Hints:
- By secondary structure, the protein is of the alpha+beta class.
- The protein is built from ten helices and ten strands.
- The chain folds into two domains: about 15-105, Sandwich (Jelly Rolls); about 115-295, Hypothetical protein af1432, CATH 1.10.3210.10.
- Helix 6 (about 195-210) runs antiparallel to helix 7.
- It holds the Pfam family HD_5.
Amino acid sequence: MDGFKIYKNGEAIKEDINKAGRFKLMIQDSDFEIFESYIHAGHSVICQPYECENSMNAVFVLSGKLYHTNTKSYISGGEHYTFKNLKETHHLSVEEDTELLMIRKKSFFMEQVSKMNKVMELMDMIQKKDHYTEKHCNSTGNLAVKIATYLRLSDEVIQNVLFIGKIHDIGKIDVPIEILNKPGKLTAEEFDFIKKHPQRGHDIVMETIGDKEVAKIILQHHERIDGSGYPFGLKGKEISVEAKIILVADSFDAMTSNRPYRKPMSVNDAIQELRTYSGIWYEKEIVEALVEVVRE
Length: 296
C-alpha cells in the first residue's frame, strides 16, 4: 500500500484463530508479509526449502520457547532466527506457548492458514467424539514429523506426516465411545468394528478435503510390512513411507499413554516392544529414528 498508514490496537489485515493458536497478518506488500503468531505448546513450526528460495525469512521469538530438532538446540524469547535457500526441512517444537513475529515472503500466511484450518476442522470433529483421541492424534503428528525430519525426508513427506498424523484416527468418530474406552478386552466383533476406522477416515477426508494422497495414507496407517496389518494386508513397498512413520509414532504414543484397559508402558519398555517387531511390523530405520528422537 502506498502512502503512510498507522495501525492501532492490534489492527490486522486478517486474523485467524484455531486449535494451534492465533495468527494475525499485520503487513502485506508485493514481495513480503509480516504476521504475528501465538502458538500453543505441543504444536510444531516447520521451515521448508520451497518457502525460501532466494528469499530471506526472519522469525523473532517474542516470548516462549522452541526446540530446533535439526540442531538439538533451544530458541527462547528475545532471540530470532533466519532462513534462506534451505537444503532440507527444519522442524521446531513449540515447548511453551510462544509468540512469534514472522517476516516472510508474500502468500505464505494464507497458504498455511488454509492448510491448517482444514486439519483443525477435522480435529474439532475428533475432539467432540473423544478427548483422548484428539490428544493422541496431536502427539502422533508431532512425533511423526520429528521422525521424518530426523530421516531427512522430502518436504512433501514431512508436510504429510505432520498434518495426517494429527487426523489419522478421524475414522474413529463413528466408533461407539463405550468401545473406544472399554476397560476390558474387546470382543472379536468389537475389534472388527475398530478395524473399520482407516476406511472411514479415508472416506471422511475425501468428503471434506478431497485429497486422494492424504486419504490413501490414512487408509494405510495400520498396515504392517509383513502383511499382518489391516484393512488390506499390504506388505513392504506397497505401504507409503508416511503410513509407516505414522504407524511407529502411533504405536509408541498409544503404548506410553494411560488407557482405561491398561496402565502406560515406560518409554524404555515401549522402545523394546517396537524393537521386538522391528523388521517384522515396523521398518527398522523408522524405529531407530524414533529412538533417537525420543532420547533427545
